Amino acid sequence: MTGVRKGLAKVEVALRWDPSPAGTPANDLDIVAAVYGAEDLHRDPVQLVHFGKRSPDGTITLNRDSHTGQGFGFDEVMTIELERMGEKSRRVVVGVVIQNALAGADSGDRARTFADIAGTGFRIREGHTDLAQGDFGSVPTATAATVAEFLRDASGAWSLDARLRGFDADPEEYTRAMGSVR
Q1: Containing H/E element for 13?
Q2: I need a labelling partner for 75 at 20 to 30 A (CA). Which of 18, 124, 135, 167 fits?
Q3: Structural Rg of the chain based on CA atoms
């Protein structure tokens, strides 16, 4: 799943998962993107985009959002227009968080992880070319994971490093930790 491709302009990150079995709470997975400026590449993003929070400059768009995983193919899709980002934007980290991972945790239930959600997968593409794809099988105990990191070099060209990294964090914790140094 790892790989680097330079000169990216407009990419699409798509996420899929199967609906929960009948009679059980719905699983809600969300794509999250954090944009980091040249002054701080790892801690505090200058933009944080997810369901309910839009990109102020319009360079990141959540095109499709699902709260249940019902539908055909990919349930959530985010478009990232790297070529339109301001020149101070140097790094974009994209991840997936299980929104209701801790649902029922107060009653003694353990948090839901990727191992509890069937049919998970993601795809990163530019145009009709798949750049990376995978599932969350290598991070079964995680409640959130990064799937991609886009980096801008000195010439202004964007490259992709697609590496899965799992986190055991609630959505708010994850958005603070997702850009940390690997």
Answers
A1: strand 10-16
A2: 167
A3: 16
Q: With 0-12 CB in 10 A as exposed, 13-18 as middle and 19+ as buried, what is 157?
A: middle
User: Percent helix, strand, coil in the chain (nearest 5)?
Assistant: 10, 40, 50
Beta bridge partners of 159: 6, 151
Supply angle C-alpha 80, 50, 149, rounded to 5.
45
Phi, psi of 152 (to 5 degrees): -100, 130
Side-chain half-sphere CA neighbours of 176 within 13 A: 5
Q: What is the pLDDT of residues 17-59, one digit of tens each?
A: 888 888 878 788 999 999 999 988 888 899 999 887 888 899 9
CA 152 to CA 78: how far, in whole Å?
19
Integer CA distances (angstroms), 12 to 33, 49, 88, 112, 147, in order: 12, 14, 22, 27, 12
Neighbours of 107 (CB within 10 A): 6
Residues 147 and 96 sit within 8 Å (Cβ to Cβ):
yes
Task: Please state the pTM of the whole predicted model.
Answer: 0.88
Residue 21 CA: distances (Å) to CA of 90, 115, 163, 165: 41, 14, 30, 27
> Quick one: pLDDT at residue 105?
46
